[in-house]
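so im writing up the methods section and need the CinA family protein record in one place, dumping it here so i stop losing it
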Amino acid sequence: MQTMIELSAILGEALAAKGWQLALAESCTGGMVAQVVTAVAGSSVWFDRGFVTYSNAAKTDMLGVQADLIATYGAVSEPVAHAMAHGALQYSLAQISGAITGIAGPAGGSPDKPVGTVCFAWAIRHEVQGIHVVAETMYFQGDRTNIREQAASHLLAGLLRLSTS
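--- predicted struct ---
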């Protein structure tokens, strides 16, 4: 299994080869993915920006996520992750984005959304077709640190798959 730094380096090579830049929208990981990405030397070529949108207000203010979307589905939901990834592209120069919103625990879980529930979205900006977004929900086990690390790795792996497809 590759480390997050290794994934970031490979992702960076793939993005640089395409001339693409990356934007991130993170909630429960609090900028962890951006920290790992920027640990790779030369990442300024392919990393545009990251949005740490921990509160619902930040998701709305910084990424344009509609408040009624959050009220209807909850901040930890695929529709909100989808809107976060979409917003990250709208408010950046990037061609690809990734978003994470989840419940890392130890509190905050519910029967419908237990601790470890993490929603992801990945978006690509196409010149002709516009923005295409894919969302997914995963359920991770472990403590807060483990869940956040698994979420960050999963987002990076998804970005790598999308950037090389």
